[in-house]
């Protein structure tokens, strides 16, 4: 029997207002305001001390063939990368989430590593792979459309595996078993029963992958060069090299249109996926893997091949190239050089000092992201009866997804414009050292929300109602019901936030001072300086950063174990 609903305790509404208001204030000050300021500055001219609206920049930028070439390249690279990631990721989702075998948690962590790797590291790894003398140098796809797409698939493979696998693991097997008992072959049962059930998860993963492919700043900047740029790299070029804020503002709006469309599609498909979860069993339906079973062996062989060629080979190639000295021999010279500032003093700090800066910054950024993202997940997980409140909750969810799609370059440059005296305070955040972790937290918050939210939504609301009926205050309900059930997913969210903050490059490239540079910024500076010594140091530093992020995600995945958790 359903327990009677109790009237909210005094102060409950105030608590929920604060839980929603504090994240909104954070988003408004550190995301909406900087982005809006940059766009406004691009469309207003200074006419004798007064600012006048001038929209001629739209016609000027949109009439340039280069603009539409960049837009076309962005959409083409994102579309092809999305299709390949989905096709290659489905076998991996089956093997890693539908089958049980020793070392499954380790394998899941390995597959997740590419997603949390800094985009600069991914670009460096594939640049070493495709360069003359590299493992696949004979393909001739260095600085090409194909090279960029392969790197994008590497980066987003885990998104498909985790998103689709998370639903597949909980999918009730009885429908497929019934089809098999009626004479359907394994392929026909998969095509007519399982695949339609996975449709919402596949479509949701595709929308998210498209979004990430369209905004992979570091990968395209390192691999594509000037010829295969995207909207985001074009914003960076117009802002940093030409100081053309008007063109950058127009491009930012074009990017917002693309991102908003992808987010709307993703949100609608994610809602269908979450409704589908109500039809699944509470326990994992995974079975013991067997090489003798063709339905297991074929996707397993495909997964081994894809992970080997797409994940292991690029990372192994990066490690191997980092061990080649400038004179062509093998050794640790590049790693020894990490204690210096590079050839011709290319850096202001050593790589080890930059590593320490990255770790300190990532700790603070992860703390901010988990607190803000946890509050958002808690508020958005509620299903109020009022239609107006439901729309407000949906709007809040969508608002905190926007940082995934807006150029980090736009956010970083907007910080420099707006945060000299935020809210009238007598403090210049641009020189305080807080700007970098705040910017990194803005990027990490959507991932925290997406990781924690499905778990909080899956909690049976009757558990909270029973606790409240027995006299538990809202804080105690949160502590005794929601807390234990979301603990592991929150640990995974901490891992994601920390790893993403370690590798954030777009906004950090604007905000990090030379004497407090982070590891991704140092790697990019080394790549841009001439000399074999600097390039070797960049390779070695990329390995260090990859090991750090991989270790964080392995630990987070290990702590999560087989517990339910949100996916992307």
From TrEMBL:
Classify the protein's membrane topology as the record does: Multi-pass membrane protein
**Pfam families reported for this sequence:** BPD_transp_1
An example GO CC term for this entry is: plasma membrane
Which coarse location class describes where this protein primarily resides? membrane
Q: Which Gene3D superfamilies is this protein grouped with?
A: MetI-like
Fetch the PROSITE patterns from UniProt: ABC_TM1 (PS50928)
List keywords of the entry alphabetically: Cell inner membrane, Cell membrane, Membrane, Transmembrane, Transmembrane helix, Transport
Q: Which residues form the ABC transmembrane type-1 domain?
A: 71-264, 355-556
Top-level taxon of origin: Bacteria
Compartments it resides in: Cell inner membrane; Cell membrane
List membrane-spanning regions: 12-33, 75-97, 109-130, 145-164, 197-225, 245-265, 297-320, 362-380, 392-417, 437-456, 535-556
GO annotation, biological process: transmembrane transport
Q: Which family does it belong to?
A: Belongs to the binding-protein-dependent transport system permease family.
Q: What name goes with this protein? A: Iron ABC transporter permease
Organism of origin is: Isoptericola sediminis
């Amino acid at each position: 029997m359903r327990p009677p609903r109790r009237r909210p305790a005094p102060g409950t509404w105030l608590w929920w207002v604060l839980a929603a208001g504090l994240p909104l204030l954070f988003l408004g000050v550190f995301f909406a305001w900087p982005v809006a300021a940059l766009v406004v500055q691009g469309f207003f001219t200074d006419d004798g001390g007064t600012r006048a609206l001038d929209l001629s920049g739209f016609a000027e930028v949109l009439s340039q063939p280069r603009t539409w070439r960049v837009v076309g390249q962005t959409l083409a690279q994102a579309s092809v990368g999305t299709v390949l990631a989905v096709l290659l990721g489905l076998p991996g989702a089956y093997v890693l989430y539908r089958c049980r075998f020793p070392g499954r948690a380790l394998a899941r962590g390995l597959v997740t590593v590419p997603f949390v790797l800094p985009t600069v590291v991914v670009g460096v790894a594939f640049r070493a792979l495709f360069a003359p003398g590299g493992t696949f140098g004979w393909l001739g796809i260095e600085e090409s459309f194909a090279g960029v797409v392969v790197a994008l698939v590497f980066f987003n493979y885990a998104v498909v595996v985790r998103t689709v696998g998370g639903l597949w693991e909980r999918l009730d097997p009885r429908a497929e078993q019934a089809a098999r008992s009626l004479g359907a072959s394994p392929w026909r049962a998969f095509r007519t029963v399982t695949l339609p059930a996975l449709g919402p998860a596949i479509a949701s993963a595709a929308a998210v992958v498209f979004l990430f492919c369209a905004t992979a700043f570091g990968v395209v900047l390192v691999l594509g060069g000037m010829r295969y740029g995207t909207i985001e790299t074009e914003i960076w070029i117009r802002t940093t090299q030409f100081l053309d804020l008007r063109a950058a503002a127009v491009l930012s709006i074009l990017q917002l249109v693309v991102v908003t469309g992808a987010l709307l599609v993703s949100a609608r498909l994610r809602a269908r996926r979450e409704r589908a979860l109500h039809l699944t069993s509470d326990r994992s339906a995974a079975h013991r893997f067997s090489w003798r079973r063709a339905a297991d062996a074929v996707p397993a062989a495909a997964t081994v091949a894809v992970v080997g060629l797409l994940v292991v080979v690029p990372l192994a190639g990066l490690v191997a190239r980092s061990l080649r000295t400038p004179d062509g021999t093998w050794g640790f010279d590049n790693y020894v050089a990490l204690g210096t500032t590079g050839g011709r003093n290319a850096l202001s700090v050593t790589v080890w000092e930059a590593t320490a800066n990255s770790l300190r910054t990532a700790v603070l950024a992860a703390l901010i992201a988990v607190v803000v993202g946890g509050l958002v997940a808690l508020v958005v997980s509620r299903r109020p009866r009022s239609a107006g409140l439901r729309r407000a909750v949906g709007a809040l969810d969508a608002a905190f997804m926007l940082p995934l799609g807006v150029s980090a370059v736009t956010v970083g440059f907007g910080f420099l414009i707006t945060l000299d005296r935020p809210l009238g305070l007598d403090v210049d955040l641009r020189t305080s050292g807080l700007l970098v972790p705040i910017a990194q937290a803005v990027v990490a918050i959507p991932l925290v929300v997406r990781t924690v939210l499905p778990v909080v939504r899956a909690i049976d609301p009757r558990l909270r109602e029973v606790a409240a009926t027995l006299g538990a205050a809202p804080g105690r309900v949160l502590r005794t019901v929601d807390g234990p059930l979301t603990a592991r997913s929150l640990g995974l969210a901490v891992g994601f936030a920390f790893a993403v903050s370690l590798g954030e490059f777009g906004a950090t490239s604007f905000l990090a001072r030379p004497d407090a540079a982070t590891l991704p910024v140092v790697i990019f500076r080394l790549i841009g300086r001439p000399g074999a010594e600097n390039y070797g140091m960049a390779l070695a530093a990329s390995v260090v950063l990859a090991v750090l992020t991989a270790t964080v995600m392995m630990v987070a995945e290990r702590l999560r174990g087989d517990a339910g958790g949100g996916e992307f």
